[in-house]
Design goal:
Length: 509
Amino acid sequence: MSALPTALAAQLPIAPVLLPLVAGIVLLLWRAAPLAVQRGVSLSALLLLLATDMALWLQVQDGAVQVYALGGWPAPIGIVLVADRLAVWMLLATALVALGALLYALRGDDALGPHFHVLFQWQLFGLDGAFLTGDLFNLFVFFEVLLLASYGLLLHGGGRLRTRAGLHYVVLNLLGSTLFLFAVGTLYGLAGTLNMADLAVRLPLLPPADWPLLRTALLVLLVVFALKAALLPLSLWLPAAYGHTSAAVAALLAIMTKVGAYAILRVDIMLLGHSGGVLDGWVQPWLLWVALATLLAGAAGVLAAGGLRQQTGHLVVLSMGTLMLGFALDTPQSLAAGLYYLPHSVFVSAALFLLADVVARGRGQAADGFSAAPPMPHRAPLAALYAVLAVSVAGLPPLSGFVGKFMLLQAALGQPHWAWVWAGMLGAGLVTLFALSRSGTQLFMRVLPGGEATLTAWPVTLLLPATLLAALGVGMALAAAPLAAAAAAIAQQIAQPQNYIHAVLGAGG
């Protein structure tokens, strides 16, 4: 239980939304302030947000579902924010990866264009709101907020390749937003509500004549979430968009695909797994095969990539396939494995994006491409950090990638398609190991004779953010037992949506 006063504890669920919103407004009003002032405000707000998320995590450790009704209007009439273990787990992962990304941006990336810190804070506002909202329409609103902020961040600094990749990203997400609006409009027309807890109560009561339209609306909704999660065949935009933007933005956006995965999990558990037979188990069969296809496509992209940034983009796709396998198997063990694997994949991917930028700065025209280049100064620490990240991504012991994948392989045993899951995961892991070994050799061992390195003075602080994120991954391995237990507690809680429904709707729900 939290030691916070009761009055303060009751207000805590709205703090992760208010803090970045207010920080963004302050930064916008102070847009003419010196960059050092903007940096101080942005970093201070993020550290306060991280402390708030930690306090909220302590609040939900007893299994309570905390509900904040905006304006005092009760659900389902009013807007509610819902903080349970799953939502706060996502908030913590977001704040930690954002800290690494912001620390790297303070090295100069934030000066490449205007309003970086405003957009950064509002990106956090959209992300945190999406994790906390208990309403599908407000999920749409927060999606739009985080997408609008991400449009500006992706294009921050300009450039032809960045603009072209960003344009593809914008067009696809505008299409997804349109479909999202159609889906929630149809659900509201059928059920008369968009509160997720209320939908879970009302959907089983719909007459059979409405079931085809209900399935269509939910299918469109899941397609939109699959686009956000970069599941095959809706993942082709990601490697280019993430590979051509600035390193700090790519690191922050490593959490973006997990918003889609979170939304799929919420809808699957709340609406598809609590429908009294109308939709039970409807999504699992196709989700399993989509996850396997995404996993294998990501592995193929990792093997074919021509540079480290692009390769890391494909690793994000691969991690989404692995994560969705855990959700698709739909057992408490597989959900726990996926929830443990989720922050690991975010931290490692973000660290690789930052490391790729450091490598590109030191290799001249070769940048992060897998070709020979003049020798970089201080190759040893770069290569050592790359080796740690590669071992973790490939799922080799003893790091967190191995723990997450081992948990998932164990959870798959005894399931109908366990052989496909094992073959897909082990095959993708082998391909990833080979590809990353080859990439490391090309970047750090294959050097041109003679020539001079372009990075003559390598500041230690340039590598500090990537090292911090890598250390979080290592820390997850060292604390594997308590973190796996926390993931299992989250899985147990979300597998019993009645508690969530009761907390949101009250005794009448």
